Records
---
Amino acid sequence: MLRIRELKLPVDHTPEDLTGKVLRTLRIRPEELLRLEIRRRSLDARGGELRYVYLVDVEVKREQAALKQSRGKAERAVRTQYRFPEPGTERMERRPVIIGAGPAGLFCGLMLARAGYAPILLERGEPAEKRARTVERFWLTGALDPSSNVQFGEGGAGTFSDGKLNTMVKDPVGRNRKVLELFVEAGAPEEILYENKPHLGTDELIGIVTNMRRKIERLGGEVRFGCQAEDLQVQDGRIRGVTVRDKDTGESGSVEADQVVLAIGHSARDTFDMLKARGVPMQAKAFAVGVRMEHPQEMINQSQYGPGYPASLPAAAYKVTRQTGAGRGVYSFCMCPGGYVVNASSEPGHLAVNGMSYRARAGKNANSAMIVTVTPADYGGTDVLAGVEFQRRLERAAFRIGEGQVPVQLFGDFCSGVPSAALGDVEPCIKGAYRLANVRELFPAELSAALEEGIRGCASLIRGFDRPDAVLSGVESRTSSPVRILRDGHLESAVGGLYPCGEGAGYAGGITSAAIDGLKIAEAIAKKYMPCYD
Ligand SMILES: Cc1cc2nc3c(=O)[nH]c(=O)nc-3n(C[C@H](O)[C@H](O)[C@H](O)COP(=O)(O)OP(=O)(O)OC[C@H]3O[C@@H](n4cnc5c(N)ncnc54)[C@H](O)[C@@H]3O)c2cc1C
């Protein structure tokens, strides 16, 4: 197999153009090309000329000759094949339990189920389809279900999202690709395997996570919904089971297990309290807070693609960052092209926002979180969960100034520190009711000053980024976990048999990196144990 990099083609090219370019690069005839596989495709807007850039793997007749004829433009393709470990030698007497069916828990469960471990997944929320109705009802009526919402339920926090799958994690053993392949097996479009910045969109994600769950069940696993882990049973420093509460009956019960995966996500605050009370070692971790900011998508397209860009291009994305004079980093996060701001609350009397898009990204606004990193120095207190309390304080304030609705403010008014009285040309695209307010008052003065300075600074990167009628919504508080649940080199907590996993445990940030961490935990369990139960 040969690999050719940096094949550049105009945005309106056809698949035949790509084939033609390959044939010319290798100086071969069409019948000599046996197979062409796109491994990477990215849109390059640098230098004012828009082009797609390809990396392809090809199978050809007379490979050695083609390699020579390419005059260094081709190379032998080297691929990393992901391998799941063979079962270990220690006996596993009882089925492993996974708390949480977000990306970390689902992918961990799927890998263990494929290897014959028949895992039991406990999920406090609802199955994806039912959850989607509960979330739509919340956005329409404001009636929040604290156990099934944008944060909790099948598929986890990422289900109502833009479903961006890119990650900064550089995984040497091919877990990243494996995660994308498992998404495709569950119904995701093939393009995610080679798109530089793949995304799924909420409309695709609901079906995909449902298919994954059904596969786990077909392979002997089990997913229990409306089942909240409310305590851990620990004996002689080792996990022996989980106490669970059934959402419908309110009754508590017990699930015995010697291996328990904690894939609870960054919003499971009651579970963090329980872990602290149980003495599970944790430490405070930096995270970021801020606002969600909306601009017209057309303005972003013009900025990223230039005037007169082809209509065939997707809604443009951006990533901006600025250092303030005081040395604070202000940056964009979880940017949603053609998307919506969502009321992403999970606790009554608290209001948090986030962003989502549908696969088509066809909304009229672009939005992203504009956030600033906070540390214990910002919110005081030495308690390991002080960060959670800080998030709660901000969210209570947001709920108060919005009177239960999403508080919004124009950037110009934010800079003046006055409540907005009317909208400008940018009409908010928000899932959930919203209300004009003074979002600036949510934050300690130092943080709102940093946000203002940072956003103004980003206008040198994207013209009009600081336009006075850009719309800010508050509060973006769930950007990552405020704690890390400690684990050792075998990925186990000091409580033997307990495996902290994913974003909530502080080892991931995003759908794909959480899924990768799920694979790591499944591998750690498989490497050590062999299933000895029917
Ligand atoms: C609105 C929104 C949009 C996002 N957009 C993107 C995006 O486009 N791309 C991206 O990469 N990331 C995105 N993220 C972040 C991404 O969703 C998370 O990083 C990822 O879901 C973390 O996966 P996880 O499995 O570790 O935790 P989660 O997804 O949070 O899943 C944890 C699960 O555990 C369950 N749980 C918690 N406590 C208990 C308990 N005690 N008992 C039983 N079950 C429990 C929860 O109900 C939840 O389903 C977004 C997040 C949100 C909220």
Note: The two ends are 43 Å apart (CA to CA).
---
Amino acid sequence: MREEERSRTYYIHTFGCQMNQADTGIISTLLRNEGYKPAAAEEDAGIILLNTCAVREHAVDRIENYLQHLQGMKKRRKDLLVGITGCIPQYQREEMFFLSPAIDFLAGPDTYRTLPSLIEQARAGARLSALDFNAAEMYEGIDQERPGSISAFVPVMRGCNNMCAFCVVPFTRGRERSHAFSTVLKEVRQLAEAGYREITLIGQNVNSYSDPETGRDFADLLAAASHAAPKTRIRFTTSHPKDISEPLLRAIAGHENICNHIHLPVQSGSTRILGLMNRGHSVEEYRGKIDLIRSIIPGVAITTDLIAGFCSETEEDHQATLKLLSDVRFDSAFMFFYSTRPGTLAARTLPDDIPEQVKKRRLQEIIDLQNEISSKLYEEAVGAVVEVLAESESKRSGQQLMGRTATNRVVVFDRAGHEPGDFLDVRITAATSATLLGTAVDN
Ligand code: SF4
């Protein structure tokens, strides 16, 4: 490829959550609209973008390591441009330029429309950043580019107003704002017509969705999305316990194509710790929501997020978390130990006083208990016939496919003539703590 041609090709590495994956699709469309072309691999690209995540220290370390690799590439290729987008530059701001000479420009989640101009100015030797918050920016009219054709993420809002003490999101994605009801429905219809089999409505806290035009809430939006794409599975993530409402649960129970799975982060089983985390609810209130969910939605799967070793966490607080896991029996969980995020409420007001080896020991106890619970729950599915949406070939063998149930459980099964994108019934024959194994049932 001629150098000039290559200079207008880009490659994006995406780190972090579904919102970042959706933003990568928006960035790609914005660059294509300006005549840039996606490269198949970073070696073929004239511009490399890292779309970053700042949620934990580990995520930031990864970027620092990757920048060393890019610095090496730039030694060999003087024309290569490197840009950092997403949550880390929004949070570390221009300080990031000191992190590595490889960085040519920075852009935050609200400024992606400036990328073409940042690129051209970087090509002329300027090292610039675009890091303003812009609550009006919803990238309306920018069709998100999507990998694959089976599952699609549809952002229904941006930002978050909940100031959870450990979280950087409000400082990287700004204030909460919702997409127009009509815009979301139009996108859902278009995706269903394009043949997508599953649509996930995404946001940092989708339950606080509110249509800027009519004030309609998330329960209304979910029901409308279900009607707009009746043959498509509808999912949503992430929920905040304080915003779980009965109308929302009735919308899920009342529409067959809305998946009976709710991801409901709890973070800790101690009301004292939840208070320090500024989560806005007690453990008793959380247990009440769990009971309400299970009373309204039969067979619902509930998953969660947990943080071990938050500031001042005692052994008693930790035991309360283990007790909550034993009582609630989550289907599965994302589990981490606390790492301070500079600038957050916790970093400014609470000492990170739990020794790392104690954090790691408590995290391991949480993981061991949750894996035991998941194993038992998954084992109970053996012998059952479940509906699966086939998503891809299984990593284990091309003779097998991987898919998921409506309750978001991963199923690996013998192909038996099926293809990714098929909905089919699978008889479960075996289980691990994270995967169901089975055979396709001929209907
Ligand atoms: S709800 Fe809390 S944890 Fe979730 S994104 Fe908002 S501030 Fe962060």
Note: The pocket of iron/sulfur cluster is lined by residues 160, 162, 164, 167, 169-170, 204-205, 240 (CB under 6 Å).
---
Amino acid sequence: MAVIISNISSPLDAPESTVVSAALKKAGIREKNVIRAGVYKTSLDARKRDNIHRVSSVWAELPEDMEKAVCAKHKDCAKVENHSFEPVFGDKKQQGRIAVIGFGPAGMFAALTLAEYGYNPVVFERGSDVDSRTAAVEGFWKGGEFSGQSNVQFGEGGAGTFSDGKLTTRIHDPLCRRVLEIFAEMGAPEEILTKAKPHIGTDKLRETVKNIRRRIIGLGGEVRFDSLVTDIKLRDGKIVSVTADNEEIPVCAAIAAVGHSARDTFSMLLDKGIIIEPKPFSCGARIEHTRQSVNESLYGEHAGDPMLPEGEYQLSYRKGNRAVYTFCMCPGGYVVPSQSEEKTIVTNGMSEFARDGDNSNSALVVSVSPEDFGNKPLDGVSFAADIERRAYAATGSYCAPASTVGAFLDGTASLSGASVTPSYSLGVVPVKLDDIFPSFITGMMREGLGVFSRKMRCFGDRGAVLTAPETRTSSPVRITRGEDLCALGIEGLYPCGEGAGYAGGIMSAAVDGIRCALEIMKIYKA
Ligand SMILES: Cc1cc2nc3c(=O)[nH]c(=O)nc-3n(C[C@H](O)[C@H](O)[C@H](O)COP(=O)(O)OP(=O)(O)OC[C@H]3O[C@@H](n4cnc5c(N)ncnc54)[C@H](O)[C@@H]3O)c2cc1C
């Protein structure tokens, strides 16, 4: 085992060996007693402009008795928790296949876990493989045809494939380490294992996703693309089959990892009597600044220092039951067309691993709940869809509604005086955002901008640009499940990941996928 020594401050350019020596010195450990050691996690502390530095934790493998002594003596020393992965296997014979519906992070990690232990899962993904999907998406972004089946939300890798691939999460699940290790093993940059705020970047994520697919198939799993699950069959409170491509496939279990945009699938499940609840989510717009103005707002005169990562921010403000906050920030990234339905507009953000685009953007969003949109299961879905359709109607095309912050604050529609060139590839049109969103959203966005401009100078820039609408921040539904992770009252159906309302982001979706796979393995033998 090993110990973790935390809170090791070091200059930005300090080599790993210096950080490790400082940690050992702090913990009173002599180098000759160390079996192995290295940096475990490192982050940037830029709170004081005149003292921007790194804060790291270091792991060190020591003789067992010494580990206990060191941890007893130092508060910043702790034993590394044992995250060993020991699945429990059932002995029930599989009557039918184990199906995984959706090949986003949740579906990918569920299928990989099942395949690794010999369960030969069959994966159904409505969108295409990542190469064909990329061609369809980039074709659309260049003004070509929109595909309802292969787009930013649907296809191999799921919603996160065209993203910054940020792997940050608020869940403290021991399986997070396993997810990072698998991503690294499958081709993601090694640094994701040691960075406090790791990201893969869309360019490297596509290769990583392919490698996961190849591993699943290599282990006896099956992955079907352009394969939409249109129906499920239930008998005596148990799932017995799924239907895709007009073929009914008998199953003993099915993981429904369909993501937050599978509106048709939500309707199908509801019609089958699956319990679905409306769930709070958030709506707003992407705010875009030049990358330099964000870096200057965060680092002051140090902006541009090659030792400093591209500036990242996270801002929030709450008033009563409602919050406005920035979300999914993409340093050196792009605002991307992210719809999954014809004649709608949806924005989201993406960066390449290098994060070297001219602009930086984030979603500036306001929390909404059933109190705002209704208590029927799919009321949140309709609320978001209405905004997306209004946005399309406002421009009459796939150009996105946009406005400078100044015009937005004044309640008008204009892009003149913009200090940034909008990166939305299909073009933007000046639109009064109050014509797209209900006032409780635009009102809170205005308040948020006021508060944030006092925290970061670039948020006071009236020339910054808002591109709208951002509606797919998380799932507008929760598919209710029990402790066994099965849909309430339906044996063998596992609502999973973000779409089902049990995850928010790549990491937590992947972890939820593994958890659902482990539940199935507890029942069946391979
Ligand atoms: C542009 C963008 C950028 C993002 N950036 C980040 C980021 O940097 N970091 C982060 O943590 N999160 C990010 N996210 C969010 C993240 O992508 C999601 O939280 C995550 O992908 C959820 O994983 P999931 O597997 O639950 O669902 P999804 O990834 O949505 O995958 C669901 C899959 O199911 C398929 N499917 C749906 N219905 C059916 C059906 N009936 N039959 C067969 N297949 C079906 C879909 O085609 C899809 O591929 C981003 C999202 C977007 C859109």
Note: The mean pLDDT is 95.
